[in-house]
Every structure is written in structure tokens, then in C-alpha cells.
Specification:
This protein is an alpha/beta fold. The chain folds into two domains: 168 residues, 2-Layer Sandwich (Ribosomal Protein S5, domain 2); 208 residues, Rossmann fold (3-Layer(aba) Sandwich), CATH 3.40.50.300. Helix content is 37%, strand content 18%. The strands form six sheets. It has a five-stranded parallel β-sheet. A four-stranded mixed β-sheet has the order 1-2-4-3. It has a three-stranded parallel β-sheet with strand order 5-8-9, with helices on both faces. α2 packs across α3, α6 packs parallel to α16 and α6 packs across α19. The radius of gyration is 28 Å and the shape is elongated. The termini are far apart.
Amino acid sequence: MLSKIFSVTTIGLQTLTIEVEVNAAKGEPGIRIVGLPSKAVQESQERVTTALQNCGVRFPAKRIVINLAPADIPKEGPNFDLPIAVGILNSLDIIQIDEDHTPLFIGELSLNGEIRRVKGVLPAVLHAKRHKYTQIVIPQENHKEVEIIDGVHIHPVGHISEIIEHFRNKIALPLLTPKPFTFQVEEKFEVDFADIHGQESAKRALVIAAAGTHNILLNGSPGSGKSMLAKALVSILPPLTQEEAIQVTNIYSITGLAQDGIITKRPFRSPHHTTSQVGLVGGGTKLKPGEISLAHRGVLFLDEFPEFSYTCIESLRQPLEDHQVHISRASGSISYPAHFTLVAAANPCPCGHFLSKTKNCNCSDFQIDRYQKKISGPILDRIDLHISIQEVETSKLIRHIPDENYRSNILRKQIIQARKVQKNRYSETHYLTNGELNSQAVKKFCHFSQDAQHTLEKAMIKLQLSARGYFKVIKVAQTISDLDGSHQIELSHIAEALQYR
């Protein structure tokens, strides 16, 4: 008997319906899986047969052929265990499924029949909703990451016996009740802005970066507070919207990192400078997302920026510009979103004391020049805000009194308000913040006073800004204007934006 069951596979973030065709006929007993299965898929025949036998299913002496269609798409992972098991049960007439109303199935089987957690459940559920499937059966352990999705009946199942009983005796499967999306606004953080000693100019720059999703470079001596400032940035970012939370959780789901359910906090990724290019950008034999995609809609903190390999640093060029990364290999090509705020921290020289007012630098001019050239001009041109950080004076360290007006929760409210202004301004476009604008959008939406326009023209000539640098100054000035509640870019906004170049 021929049986057809439907499942889902993910290729990057793209999803594809897979038809699991199972045919049981006379012939040499055994199971054969075709359709470009990986080793993990081929091994599913052992897991499935053992799990079904431990559930009391007796296999007749038949030849079972399982085809995973389309046959030209590679199939990877244990996600097909459950649809294969259901297909075998249906083809052996142990259960009867109406193929016109069959659910999607996804899950891994243990040898005792338990359905285990798998990767990519959220993309699979969204695929079911998008393609008008009314039902999808998933592992019970994955239910948290899809509990805010409505418009499709989601059945979180813990054991294959529940499915057998459902189709044999019409016992209803568990049904997940959708929950409204909620986020928690934290009031306590690892680092609060008010607890940072001094560094007012750097804190101001980080507020601008958070309000407009601008990239920032912190350049200063060791111990001046660069890492602390970067960690404090997370405390002033607005909470994720539902759409952003689904985008982020989608990425974490396919990598198996969404075990705690839907992600409601903006990601903060801080890879070590020894990270490989594949680890940072993504790729490898299975074309997995890298750190820049795991930081999507959050912060990517690259400490000791010049110590990253040249290829790692240069590979950031296209993601910083296009907010996505395209990975092409002989096995295929894929695109991942990479809309992150880059916070790069660097020492000015190998010993780190070139800009110090209290310590002597032992580096030669050649060493300093070579060290600083590790970060190329094109990369620096893509970073909106450049801040030079000095060591905090001893008197400020000893007599530090937290500035209540610079508490993270107060700053976050200002940033949320500035982002609302930007959201309203770009409501008819796909842009959310000023940092995302291209040159055409800058010309359309950013308006100057006459003094601001005149000052920018003179600065363009004097500072020899590139075309990219010119538009980045305007975008930063627009964010400063939004923080001030101004209806146009004024002279003071342009002047402050130019300081960060």
C-alpha cells in the first residue's frame, strides 16, 4: 500500500514541504530510504523500526521503500523520523489517514517511542500557516518556541503512541493554545549607564547609536571602560517587537538555540577575536548562520577589533551595508539576515597607551601605523560613530556619584520615543530606523535648515568625506534631531554628527 505524509525541511531560513512517500509491497524484507538522505536520515530506519516495535507494532515480511520528495533536495537531520514512522503505520494499514486532511509532521524518535526536540520547529510552523495547512504535529519539548503563533492548530506530542491512539481510536491530540506576545522590560542590568564613571561623550554616542541603530567604534587605552560601555548598550535598547522576536527566534530555532522558547530580549553576541570567518559570518558544509546573524536585531560586540583576522574584518563589508549576508558554496547558496548594531572596541596601538595621558607608549611609529591599518578604510567608512576614550580621572573614580538622569531606564524611554518618531516617518517603507536608510531615502526623508546645509557642504570639502561618509553624517544628525524632538536637522545636530567622524 502506498502512503503519503507531509513534512518540512529548512534550507537556511527557507522552508520547503517534503512529501514522505512510503510503499509497502511484497519482496525481500527491509527498509530503503531514497531522495538524497543524509547519514542521520538513513539511520532513522533503525530508530523508527525499534521505536514502533517497542510500541507493540509487528512488521510483516514486506519490502518498504521510503521516498523523500523532491528527490533533488538534500535531506538532513532526524526531523523526518516522525513522518516516516507515521507513513509506515499508514502503509501497513495499522492506522488510516485521510491524505486530504493530513497534518504536517516533524520530530525525532527515541528507541522507546518518545518524540524528541528537533531544530527548525518555528520555521516549520510558520510554513504550515503560510501554506494553509490546518494542523502540524511537533515534539512536545518544542512547544514554547511556537506558543505565540496562531492561525494553525499545533499539536505538541510527547510519544508516538499518542498518534497511534489518535488515528485508531479518535482520541484527540494535545492542542496548543496560542498565548499573546508579552515582553518584560527589565529594570536591573549587569551594567547600568549611571554606574559608569565619567565617559560622558562615549555614553552620549551610545545613546545615539541605540536610537538609530548606528555602528560605533570605541578607541581607547586598556581599562578605559570600552567593554563596560558596550555591555551597557543592551540596557537602553527598546524591547523586541513581536515581528522582531519571531525573526530572531527563527534564526535561533534552526541552530537549536531556542530551547527557552520565544526570544524576547535583544541578542548580545560577543565572539572571541580568535573566531574563524565561518564562525563570524556563517557558512561551513551545512551553511549555518554565524555570529552576525545570531546578533540580528541586537548587538554584535567585537572586542579587540584589530586582533580579528583580516578576512574576518573584511567579511563584514557587505553585511554592514546590506544588513544581510549571502553565502555561496559549491553545495549551494543561502542568505541570512544580519541587521545588527556593531560595537567595535580597539586599542590605539599594540601596547594600548598611545592616547594615554598617564602612561607612556613604547611602540614605534611603524608599529602604531601597522596596527591601526589592520582596520581598513572601507570598514572604518562603514562605521557611523568614532569615539576616542581616555582613562577616567582618579578623582571621578573616588568621588563618583551616579547621575540619576543617566539611568538606563530613563535613557531607554528617550530612545523608545525617538524610534517611534522614526517608525512613523518610515511607516510606508520597509525601514525602521535612520541607520537603515540608503542614499535615496536620505534625500527623501532628511530635511535641513539652511545653516545646517551650508555647514555640511563646507565639512564635506574640508574633511574630504566619501559619499558613504556624507550620508552617514546625515543619518546620525537625523537621529540626534529625533532625540531632540526637532522637525528638521539643525546646525547643532550636524555639528555634533561631524564630531563622530
